[in-house]
Amino acid sequence: MVRGPGVQWLGTIEPSAQKRWFTFGWPANRQVIWTVMPITPCPGGPQLSWKVAVERADANSCTYWITVSNLTAEAVRFEGRFNFLN
Prior knowledge:
Mean pLDDT: 95
Helix content: under 10%
Number of strands: 6
Largest sheet: 3 strands, antiparallel
Distance between the termini: 15 Å
Number of domains: 1
Radius of gyration: 14 Å
Order of helices and strands: EEEEEE
Shape: elongated
């Protein structure tokens, strides 16, 4: 059985804006992948792009910094999703 992604946060990003979120306390021995999924419908093209940076907070945990960019002229509500690769 394959487990689907978890949702870490819900966010809204203003038109043509870029915003950064962080989430902390993740186990350093796990590989985590981060994605964003728009909830607001907007057919015709991509709505969001994102970048992920990681901080090794201590020997056992990480903080992830996720920067989201809104590619549209409308506010977009979205889910910040995670999944473990190992």
